[in-house]
């Protein structure tokens, strides 16, 4: 008689799974990993309603109301809070796009469920970044006060659930108090973002006229949520002065279409990374961009190989190493940090002048201008292991 415990659980199942390397991806990655996926440029905008359509302030210096003051003080007391906030937003969208495995490089490439999940991703990343405690009745507790984080890709499109405010008609679904909401918005197309705080009340939310009547009723959607009435925007305290114009740049989205097409073409991941560093010079290229272009498990290695491949064309690829940072400073370029790179095509110059330059390998080098002669770039080991005495030749 057959021992039923030894039979597969379903047709096709391995009757003895421990006979194979079950903890290895070896058999799985051959199907889709490291295959190139190309997506079209978006035909519509991320945000249907942006800051240009609403009277949201920029650089506002208003003081928070007493009911918001403690929360605002807590947020403003976070070291580099604004900088960390905008990067948490960038990371939230990049993680959903997952360019390394999907090749996606803009919000419009996401599926409908993923777009819906962006708000959750924003809340999770902000919670982790700032170490926000869970609330008693809501998701967050800041300065002893419960509040919720609400995200919308459309400025003003935040949807507020019943448990966030007191309403005599909601019964057991009514909130215990009129709660505070953190209202977050970003538009990757315009590199804009905003965050504000507001005490939610029944009257500050949307109302509409009843059919065939002049009476008003609450404007619920299918999930029994309501949007903030535009007349109530005056009650929002906008953190850091209102709409911000420095959402970390989505490099592939904002590249010239022809340039992007030359980078994201069929072929090897190495060839695409090489082209990325040819096309994009003098500006920071982050890890996410490299992962999306290469679409390979070992994408960062492609950068190291690109240094060798592009050397004879005069390109250097600077990283976060201390010697590289010194070279970037001397050339008047932004110095990369860990997880970033910067490409520059160099040319030899005879002597120092007004042009930023650096002495490497017994030659003076400057960022090449259009039409200038091409020379093989200084060797990679010369940049990586540049001894401090060699830097004394830099022009101050």
Give a written overview of the molecule.
This protein is an alpha+beta fold. Helices cover 28% and strands 16% of the residues. The chain has 12 helices and 14 strands. It starts with 28 loop residues before the first helix and ends in a 12-residue tail after the last helix.
Question: What characteristics describe this protein?
Answer:
disordered C terminus; five-stranded mixed sheet
Gist of the model:
The chain is about 30% helix and about 15% strand. With about 400 residues, it is α+β, with helices and mostly antiparallel strands. The relative contact order is 0.10.
Question: How many beta strands in the DSSP annotation?
Answer: 14
**Overall pLDDT level:** 89
Strand order of the largest sheet: 1-2-4-5-9
Number of contiguous helices: 12
| Distance separating the two termini | 88 Å
Shape: globular
Content-based structural category: alpha+beta
Q: SSE order, as H and E?
A: HHHHHEEEEEEEEEHHHEHHEHEEEH
Q: Radius of gyration, rounded? A: 27 Å
Layout of secondary structure:
Blueprint: H1 29-32, H2 66-76, H3 81-97, H4 99-102, H5 112-130, E1 140-142, E2 145-152, E3 159-160, E4 180-187, E5 192-199, E6 207-209, E7 216-218, E8 226-227, E9 237-238, H6 251-254, H7 257-263, H8 269-279, E10 284-286, H9 287-294, H10 299-310, E11 315-318, H11 322-330, E12 340-349, E13 358-360, E14 363-367, H12 380-384
Parallel strand pairs: 2-4
Antiparallel strand pairs: 1-2, 3-8, 4-5, 5-9, 6-7, 10-12, 11-12, 12-14, 13-14
